[in-house]
Amino acid sequence: MALIVQKFGGTSVGSPERIASVAKKAATFREKGHSLVIVVSAMSGETNRLLALAHEINPNPEPRELDVLLATGEQVTIALLSIAIAKYHLPVRSYTGAQARIRTDSAYSKARIQNIDTKQIFHDLNLGRIVVVAGFQGIDDKGDITTLGRGGSDTTAVALAAALKADECQIYTDVDGVYTTDPRVVPEARRLNSLAYEEMLELASLGAKVLQIRSVEFASKYNVPLRVLSSFEENGEGTIITAETERMEEPLISGIAFNRDEAKLTILGVPNEPGVAYRILEPIAGANIEVDVIIQNVGQDGTTDFTFTVHRNDYQRALRILKDTSVQLKAREVIGDDNIAKVSLVGVGMRSHAGIASTMFRILAEEKVNIQMISTSEIKISVVIDEKYLEASIQALHTAFNLAKPTG
Amino acid sequence: MALIVQKFGGTSVGSPERIASVAKKAATFREKGHSLVIVVSAMSGETNRLLALAHEINPNPEPRELDVLLATGEQVTIALLSIAIAKYHLPVRSYTGAQARIRTDSAYSKARIQNIDTKQIFHDLNLGRIVVVAGFQGIDDKGDITTLGRGGSDTTAVALAAALKADECQIYTDVDGVYTTDPRVVPEARRLNSLAYEEMLELASLGAKVLQIRSVEFASKYNVPLRVLSSFEENGEGTIITAETERMEEPLISGIAFNRDEAKLTILGVPNEPGVAYRILEPIAGANIEVDVIIQNVGQDGTTDFTFTVHRNDYQRALRILKDTSVQLKAREVIGDDNIAKVSLVGVGMRSHAGIASTMFRILAEEKVNIQMISTSEIKISVVIDEKYLEASIQALHTAFNLAKPTG
């Protein structure tokens, strides 16, 4: 008899058939006696269709009106899903963001939820109704429609779960959970039963794009148990993401994230004096280029070497900027490499176990992989290596840390 | 410096190009210093697309949810039109029915407007903003989205004009006004500059389908001047529909309406006793057949003849029912004719001028047209004739009553 918030994304409600299948899932769930709030996105393709209409009329549409336009996408889905659920003779009520009283600030297209008045929803749940809420949207204090921006429906679901003090927030996607690493690289990769919020944040930002970072942060802040499940599978357990303390036994490593979207730039022989890091990175940031890993080493003869990574698409631009900077700073040389990959071990277990890093480095050495950069945080170790060793490295690490074996 | 409410239907906003052209019209209008509230329908085809989606999921969609679904159609249009208007650097605000505080009862799919809180709209108009409102929709006192049913956008426009005490409510359509009769039948048919509400009601119900009856009734009740205009024409004057008293000079006849959708049925030699009309029409009504003209004549030998017209599609069904009734009532005979047409002269001038009917009958006699039925009201005379004389009769009447000559 739990209270569950479920969220279905655009692909899961992308056609009348898929909507019918979500309704069937809801009916099965309701029959077990659980209370159910369902958050839905716009049907896949709908948001792009609406955006194309707007841009055909005006290349710079008014943000307020764009939100009025886009909000119709989820409104269509809540109505259709409610119509589908009613076929099972179950009482159901749909609500737009405004009707669900999801109050946001007025930052059109990237609004933030401020509070949710749950009175009406609790009233419906008490009457045994399934409540269907439009994700991605809210209303500001002037009564204007707002949208939450990327990943907004996940955020709506988590915010509702927090406000309703739900037992669980279930995010249905096209994968059946979070894996120890990408199964396309390591066939033995295993679905994780559970994960800590922080681990999910590290895994998400490093490439395992299952959940929007913002919704994980939100869930963590309000301690909402978050479960990732497949919308195309019956009876899957998915992966539950909770606070660290709730887990019975910590595995050393939860997963291996990686990406090959980055390039590395190094400026050699920079005078080692205060303000140098700022003078190197400021022009890069000024060109709107995001920097990921940053490393500075003291070199010989009072100079220093400074290395950072950027997205591969920004590599040539960053290289030109860095060469200009190099002239101004009288640096010795600028070198770069866009055939690199980053591999990261993630796990809260690292905190209490020494030797993870040295094991990682040993395994890579045995594979004859040269480590070009190292960067560590409390629950993550990242190395930058030559791209051609990526698969072999991940496979070796996955085996060495026993990730294929269930840890509970 | 007038306050004008304009309404554009689905065809007028059916594509990004058409929406751009409505925006241009609005900009021109605003530049003249007028205050402007624009009511729009869903883009043509959109409502049917949404209905098809709903029916694919559930042949009997929940009325509440169907309204949530359909209301998105106009919401898309208000956003797109506002985005188009903003291109002219004019301040603009869109409102859904709920945001415009159009309060209705809870009769989903055929809700009736109860009141409109105009505070926000007046506030916007005072700031020089163009206000764009979704037609066809409102909100009930529980906060549920409702739709107004057929012709709902016209009703929204008239209701807003009444609530705002607008100087005029302009209904843009694909014709440039109301004509003395159908120009396809009488090429000399002339656009009327002005018309009384009652005349429009008679002309509309008799076949000149330009405006929804409900919105004309509404305009009449609140005395809102209503103007019919073409959305595809610049600087057209259209036809203004007002209370009778506001017109300087009454023409005898405003227009000639007609239809050929009806069939005539007669039951002869019915005993002339109380309750006979009821016993004849009750089974017809019970079969959901609508009756238009009804005439009863006293016959010879204490019996009576009873004639009525129905839609031609219902003719065979009505004939079978009437034959059954005839047996029960011991009537002499049942006869019918589905090659008939109805011609109606409409004009408030009739009230104060005798002899209109006799002129009409003389003209038809000169054309050798036999009149089969006559029915009159205060501002209308209808005759039923053989369908083959329809065009000739209308042309002769149009000429005889000088309808081609402007009357002001």
Automatic annotation (TrEMBL), chains A, B:
Query: Which intervals hold domain ACT?
Result: 265-343, 345-408
Q: Name one Pfam family in it.
A: ACT
Instruction: Name the GO cellular-component terms.
Output: cytosol
The protein's annotated catalytic reaction(s) are: L-aspartate + ATP = 4-phospho-L-aspartate + ADP
- Enzyme category, top tier: transferase
Q: Does the keyword Ribosomal protein apply?
A: no
> InterPro entries in the record, alphabetically?
AceGlu_kinase-like_sf, ACT-like_dom_sf, ACT_Aspartokinase, ACT_dom, AKii-LysC-BS, Asp/Glu/Uridylate_kinase, Asp_kin_monofn, Asp_kinase
MF annotations from Gene Ontology: aspartate kinase activity; ATP binding
Gene Ontology biological process terms in this record: homoserine biosynthetic process; lysine biosynthetic process via diaminopimelate; threonine biosynthetic process
- The residues the record assigns to binding substrate are 47, 74
Family membership, please give it: Belongs to the aspartokinase family.
- Its protein name is Aspartokinase
Organism from which the protein derives = Candidatus Nitrosacidococcus tergens
Per UniProt, what is the name of the gene that codes for the protein in this document?
A: lysC
